[in-house]
Design a protein that fits this description.
- This protein is mainly α.
- Helices cover 83% and strands 0% of the residues.
- α12 packs parallel to α19.
- The longest helix has 36 residues.
Length: 532
């Protein structure tokens, strides 16, 4: 068994920590969504809550986990390489102070706009209800955006597991409150909504406190002293780098809002169906892609700061190979087992057979995009680490404008599945164009390695999914021993086990490098822990 390079081990070790924390958060997130589905259902009440909560989440994606964090990491990496960590802490204080002031102003403006829409615009009743609770939810945007930026800073210290634990807090708090809501306030919609709002705000404060502690522990807590670089220069560089991403991210979120608005035309069930589907799809995206992306962003930024571009491209190739190995089988599995998976996770309380069928329709198409959504998180650091923010912006705008007419065209024959398929097609075009421009600039990943990994993974995944054809027979003979409350559980567990055994067995027999590299990195991680 050939040795895995230290660089690949570093990527995998960091990813394991982030992925483990993210896995816990995503599992708890699924539990939370299960409770929401049972209590809110898949109709108007769910639409009110999800529409209102969507707004602070847009802020999180724009400022917390989006362009601002991606722009800040290379700036801080270059500052540390040239001037040291003390200067990084001073610059961070300037950035966080300015960001807090900006978020407060935006929160006030958005809250006022929401109230104006709810009171003075001719909008449907559930939109009025959503806008009426928006001012109470918006402070969460301040907390979670600061948390996202702080997480990116902690990642530059190669701290991934603890930084990723902040996502657990929201789910733990919300699960506790949803259990109480289901017990005491099930019939009162207004009480239920206020309980959910309270949980979101409490979790935001706790997440912020955790990240402040991590900054302090790992020596990057902001120092409010005069920096050697004037504030206007810091904000000027940050603005120059972040603006293209903010424009692209803003356009993407506008496209997202348009998608959901289009979905509203299909009836009450379409928006919840897309949202529940997105939850399932972003389980592997969060575990694999976000973990790899956060590690690669920090690692590739250091390589770019030191002008080690060969290492940067090797990191990207390795990351994309791991995406093929892990995310293609996840996509095929979700497509093959979509109906029992949705019924097992969501079908209880107000979530009915009709809701399950609509969600399954969306999942069939949305799941096809899992490898594409994951790949994007690995490809983008190839641009951002070199402070090239404009190229991804131009490409994303083209794909956003492609997505909107595609959604409108495909929703009529395929309903919410058409909206999901349009998103997947736009993402495919986006990734192809990004790789094309990387190749043109001679920063491309190794396409030959990736082609082999892609073909092998999809072939083995399709073979492993073959037992899904016998799912009904499997259900029949397990009926007598299934758990009465969860009749889908046993056959689904059998399906998962057979799928994993076949896929991994074929991968080992073909001598694929990815499982070997992952195992060696895990063994290396264990040996390092024993030595320490």
């Amino acid at each position: 068994m050939a040795e895995v390079s230290e660089n690949k081990r570093s990527i995998l070790r960091g990813s394991f920590g982030s992925a483990a924390a993210t896995l816990l958060a995503r599992i708890l997130g699924l539990v939370r969504v299960q409770l929401e589905a049972g209590i809110l259902g898949g109709g108007a009440l769910a639409t009110i809550w999800q529409t209102a909560f969507m707004v602070p989440n847009l802020f999180r994606r724009l400022f917390g986990e989006g362009a601002l964090s991606q722009a800040l990491i290379p700036i801080l990496s270059h500052t540390e390489a040239e001037k040291g960590l003390a200067e990084v802490r001073k610059q961070l204080a300037v950035v966080l102070s300015g960001l807090t002031a900006l978020l407060i102003v935006l929160t006030i403006l958005v809250s006022a706009g929401g109230l104006a829409i709810g009171n003075f615009c001719p909008v449907p009743g559930y939109v009025k209800s959503a806008m009426s609770i928006l001012p109470m939810l918006m402070p969460y945007a301040i907390f979670i955006c600061l948390v996202g930026v702080m997480t990116a800073v902690v990642n530059t210290r190669k701290v991934f597991f603890l930084a990723s634990l902040n996502a657990l807090i929201l789910n733990v708090v919300m699960i506790a409150l949803l259990c109480l809501a289901g017990k005491f306030s099930y019939g009162s919609n207004s009480k239920l909504i206020y309980i959910l709002i309270g949980g979101v705000l409490i979790s935001g404060v706790l997440q912020l406190l955790l990240l402040m502690w991590l900054l302090k522990r790992y020596g990057v807590f902001p120092v409010f002293q005069k920096s050697s670089t004037p504030a206007k220069n810091i904000f000027g560089e940050l603005w120059t780098l972040a603006l293209p991403g903010l424009i692209g991210g803003g356009a993407a979120q506008i496209s997202f809002l348009i998608d959901r608005s289009i979905a509203l035309k299909l009836g009450d069930y379409a928006v919840p169906a897309l949202n529940y589907t997105e939850r399932l799809v972003y389980l592997p995206v969060g575990i694999v892609a976000v973990a790899l992306g956060s590690v690669l962003m920090a690692q590739m930024s250091r390589a770019a700061a030191n002008k080690n571009y060969d290492e940067m491209m090797d990191d990207m190739t390795a990351g994309l190979r791991y995406v093929c190995f892990l995310c293609i089988p996840a996509a095929v599995f979700m497509i093959a087992y979509r109906e029992p998976l949705i019924k097992l996770l969501f079908m209880r309380g107000r979530f009915t057979e009709v809701d399950a069928a609509n969600t399954a329709d969306a999942l069939f198409y949305y799941a096809m995009g899992i490898p594409l959504f994951c790949s994007l998180k690995v490809i983008l650091p190839g641009f951002y680490a070199r402070k090239d923010m404009k190229t991804p912006l131009k490409i994303s705008l083209v794909c956003i404008f492609l997505n909107i007419p595609l959604s409108i065209a495909l929703m009529y024959p395929l309903k919410q599945g058409g909206i999901a398929l349009a998103t997947v097609i736009a993402q495919l075009v986006n990734n192809v164009l990004l790789v094309y421009f990387l190749r043109r600039e001679k920063f491309s990943p190794d396409l030959e390695q990736l082609s082999i990994a892609f073909i092998r993974s999809i072939f083995f995944a399709l073979l492993a999914a073959f037992p899904a054809l016998y799912y009904l027979q499997m259900t029949h003979w397990t009926q007598k021993i299934s758990i009465r409350a969860l009749p889908e559980l046993l056959p689904l567990l059998i399906g998962i086990a057979s799928y994993a055994v076949i896929y991994l067995g074929l991968s080992f027999l073909s001598k694929a490098s990815e499982p070997r590299e992952i195992i060696q990195s895990l063994l290396s991680r264990k040996s390092r822990k024993k030595e320490s």
